[in-house]
Amino acid sequence: MSIPSFGLGTFRLTGQAVIDSVKSALELGYRVVDTAQIYQNEADVGQAIAESGVPRSELFITTKIWVENYAADKLIASLRDSLQKLRTDYVDLLLIHWPAPGNGVELPEYMAALAEAKKLGLTRQIGVSNFNIELTRQAIEVVGKGEIATNQIELSPYLQNAKLTAFLKEQGITVTSYMTLAYGKVLKDPVLADIAAKHKATVAQVALAWALQLGYAVIPSSTKRENLASNLLARDLKLDADDMARIAKLERNGREVSPDGLAPIWD
């Protein structure tokens, strides 16, 4: 099993907006859809997938367990509820959404429940999201080396997370990059615009191609069909060593997401 490198994110999309986005993406050839319990769109995503006619066997569906469902007696029940909404018997990847230190459920308890979900066949793979190095180490101790498929983290040309990504690579854990466009901030970057002009590409394609070339999986979202189609072309864009070096210099620790009570102490 492995993590596909390109997928569709659905954060902040609900109702008809997410239904249209997922259906358009699937028509364009996307086969990976990323959602979460807290997005409150799992039922919409399930509807869009059902209406698309794409066979379940061709899809890779990810969802994430929300903080209030971390307890051992809640996690699996909440996952079964998510599966019902998604109209599927299993997800391909199940993640703990945030470490949420101090929320009353300790890491060994929720990681053991996550491993149990896999054992029950409710998910093919398990992973984490927004974990720092120390918490990822603790998670590995609970479920065993080789069991954590990915750590889904905020990453962009403005937040390159060198220490954490190096550690994950060392552990054989795939990095999944979310917020790769930094809420659209990188789209105005002159260096990225220059690289885009050189390759006759868009700035979004350059940012996504940068992440892909570093070996990360990406899950950009859009409500616009033309952007969904354009983003897919990032897979064919090859940046050269000079491009990659110039992007490396854009690091500014530009974190966009770090909610109190949910986020760890970042590396």
TrEMBL record:
A GO BP annotation: methylglyoxal catabolic process
Keyword Electron transport found: no
Domain called NADP-dependent oxidoreductase: residue spans: 7-251
Which SUPFAM superfamilies does this UniProt record tie to the protein? NAD(P)-linked oxidoreductase (SSF51430)
**Where do the catalytic residues lie?**
Y39
**What molecular function terms (GO) are annotated for this protein?**
methylglyoxal reductase (NADPH) (acetol producing) activity
InterPro entries referenced in this protein's UniProt entry, alphabetically: AKR (IPR020471), Aldo/ket_reductase_CS (IPR018170), NAD(P)_OxRdtase_dom_sf (IPR036812), NADP_OxRdtase_dom (IPR023210)
Site feature: Lowers pKa of active site Tyr: K64
| E.C. no | 1.1.1.21
Residues that bind substrate, according to the entry? H97
Q: What Gene3D superfamilies does this protein's entry cite?
A: NADP-dependent oxidoreductase domain
Keywords carried by this UniProt record: NADP, Oxidoreductase
Its recorded reaction(s) are: hydroxyacetone + NADP(+) = methylglyoxal + NADPH + H(+)
Q: Name one Pfam family in it.
A: Aldo_ket_red
Q: Which CDD domains does the record match to this protein? A: AKR_AKR3F2
Show which residues constitute the signal peptide. none
Which NCBIfam families does UniProt cross-reference here? PRK11172.1 (NF008377)
Q: Which family does it belong to?
A: Belongs to the aldo/keto reductase family.
By what name is this protein known?
Aldehyde reductase
State the organism named in the record: Pseudomonas inefficax
